[in-house]
Design brief:
Distance between the termini of chain B: 40 Å
Strand content of chain B: under 5%
Largest interface: A-B, 58 and 59 residues
CATH superfamily of the largest domain in chain B: Alpha-helical ferredoxin
Order of helices and strands of chain B: HHHHHHHHHH
Number of domains of chain B: 2
Order of helices and strands of chain A: EHEHHEHHEHHEHHEHHEHHEHH
Helix content of chain A: 40-55%
CATH architecture of the largest domain in chain A: 3-Layer(aba) Sandwich
Distance between the termini of chain A: 31 Å
Strand content of chain A: 5-15%
Number of strands of chain A: 8
Radius of gyration of chain A: 19 Å
Largest sheet of chain B: none
Number of helices of chain A: 15
CATH architecture of the largest domain in chain B: Orthogonal Bundle
Number of domains of chain A: 2
Oligomer: heterodimer
Structural class of chain A: alpha/beta
CATH topology of the largest domain in chain B: Fumarate Reductase Iron-sulfur Protein, Chain B, domain 2
């Protein structure tokens, strides 16, 4: 299986653990990722607040790279990028005026046909989902994980067509296939503060703290995420939460791909498990694996 | 909201239409059910909850809308848009107001949020991809909040989370797209 790969800006810097672990997992599953040549930022997080056309043109400029490389489908792991690509493609398909303006701006035709896919969709479907249990080398059934989807994987549901917006199960199903126990909890798609990470951190500290507390009351040992922004907010703000709310949450935040990779027997170093600010490696000691 | 009489005139109607046109959404469909306000994770910080802001847009209360913090507090999580029983893209309506305010050079109640958005796009223009350290540096210069998040930043540096140096290759592509879009806007 061969797919185009759009990592997005975060996966090349603060979200490098996601990039690294996704590639390792794809390698084990036999999924080939070809990174798009000369991709540019899709503007997720800010562009739509200054110019709607910019927010549509940037993803479309990236999708126009696919046919040049002979590719029909692109994998986008960052939830924020994923949602923006889906919205852009939807806009040019439904509004001819916007389409004309975008074609004029990117000097290329709009790519209607390109399939924009999140890696969870591929992992949760046949044939891969049945192959996952056979690849498991470390038993993680003693680990209780809260799957946190964040906002933009599922929203807006009519456009992302990813899963049920209020209570998605895709990530739960993928992690359960590896043997991990996932918990039932109400904050799967409640916002962590997203792009306020830098401009209004007090909001991020409160919202992310709420998410972590809910996961704790559901008995989770860790939270699994599928978005570099969710990861940054939940992982790096725990010292601030301690300052504001008294107790330090000490909740390990991992990318779902790191959990998959660890269950497949891939080494913690290769999965960049040591890169998180909140210690994530200790949870594996609980289930009898030294990290 | 207080109970002083509100003036509705031709200009109010024009404002409602402009917001609808810029956002590509019809705000008149809103029947004030309050679902957007209930689901909004940032409503606790807002002076007007999204439902109230939608009402102010419907009534064409330009000043009330422009003086509100609400749209600047929107995290673009799209919960409101997803749950709206009338299928109104509420988040897009809020974006439209922000775009209008920038166009008309109005002062936002939360200037740091606008500064962040602008710095993000400048960064994109320069590098084509986000150069996070550069963006953080610019934001500190513009907001004067030099020490905020210092401890966290140092920890992240120690973990080697950032690219220390930017790459420039995509900047040209982005600048060209932006230039052509600006030309269209003038037409």
């Amino acid at each position: 299986m061969k797919y185009g790969y759009y990592p997005g800006c975060s996966l090349h810097s603060t979200g490098q653990e996601f990039d690294r672990s996704l590639k390792a997992v794809c390698n084990t599953l036999g999924v080939e990722l070809v990174e798009l040549d000369k991709w540019v930022c899709c503007g997720a997080g800010a562009a739509h607040n200054l110019s709607q056309l910019m927010a549509i043109a940037l993803p479309m400029a990236n999708l126009a790279l696919l046919p040049e490389m002979g590719l029909e489908e692109v994998i986008i792991p960052c939830a924020s990028c994923f949602s923006r690509f889906k919205i852009a493609q939807h806009s040019i398909k439904t509004d001819k005026k916007i389409r004309r303006k975008v074609v004029d701006a990117i000097h290329k035709d709009c790519n209607d046909e390109a399939r924009v896919t999140h890696p969870l969709s591929i992992f949760s479907q046949e044939p891969l989902v049945s192959r996952i249990p056979d690849l498991v080398e470390r038993n993680l059934s003693g680990l209780k994980v809260a799957c946190y989807y964040g906002c933009l994987l599922t929203r807006p549901p009519k456009i992302t067509e990813f899963d049920v917006a209020e209570y998605p199960m895709t990530m739960d199903n993928v992690l359960r296939a590896t043997g991990v126990t996932t918990v039932d909890w109400p904050y799967k798609t409640i916002c962590c503060g997203a792009s306020f990470a830098l401009s209004k951190p007090d909001i991020v500290v409160k919202l992310s703290h709420d998410v972590i507390q809910e996961a704790k009351s559901a008995g989770a040992d860790a939270i699994a995420v599928a978005c570099p922004l969710c990861h940054a907010n939940l992982d790096t703000r725990q010292d601030d939460m301690a300052k504001q709310f008294g107790a330090h949450p000490r909740m390990p935040i991992l990318y779902f791909t790191q959990l998959m990779g660890y269950s497949f027997g891939i080494s913690p170093a290769e999965l960049y498990l040591h890169k998180h600010l909140t210690d994530a490696e200790r949870i594996f000691e609980k289930v009898g694996h030294a990290a | 909201m207080n109970e002083t009489a509100i003036q509705i005139n031709e200009n109010s109607v024009r404002f409602t239409d402009v917001v609808s046109a810029v956002g590509g959404v019809d705000v008149s469909y809103c029947y004030q059910c309050g679902k957007c306000a209930t689901g909004c994770p940032v409503a606790y910080e807002m002076d007007l909850v999204p439902t109230q802001l939608m009402h102010a847009i419907q009534l064409g209360l330009e000043d009330v809308v422009y003086n509100s913090k609400t749209m600047w507090l929107c995290a673009s999580c799209l919960m409101c848009t997803t749950r709206c029983p009338q299928d109104i893209d509420i988040a897009e309506a809020l974006s439209a107001i922000k775009i209008l305010m920038v166009r008309e050079q109005r002062k936002p109640r939360l200037p740091d949020v606008l500064k962040f958005n602008k710095i993000f796009l400048q960064n994109l223009n320069l590098f084509g991809r986000i150069y996070e350290l550069g963006m953080v540096g610019m934001l500190k210069l513009k907001t004067g909040k030099y020490t905020e998040d210092m401890a966290m930043g140092m920890k992240m540096l120690k973990k080697d989370k950032f690219n220390l140096l930017p790459r420039f290759e995509g900047g040209r592509v982005v600048r060209k797209i932006r230039k052509r879009l600006k030309k269209q806007e003038k037409k």
